Amino acid sequence: MSDLSSEETEETEEAEAELGEYDGERNSEGERHGRGKAHLPNGDTYDGEYEHGFRSGQGTYRFRNGACYTGEYLQNKKHGQGIFFYPDGSKYEGDWVNDQRHGYGEYTYANGDTYTGEWFNHNRHGQGTYVYKDTGSKYVGGWVNGNQEGEAELIHLNHRFKGKFLNGNPIGRGKYVFDIGCEQHGEYIQLEQVK
Question: Which regions are flagged for Basic and acidic residues bias (predicted)?
Answer without folding.
Answer: 23-33
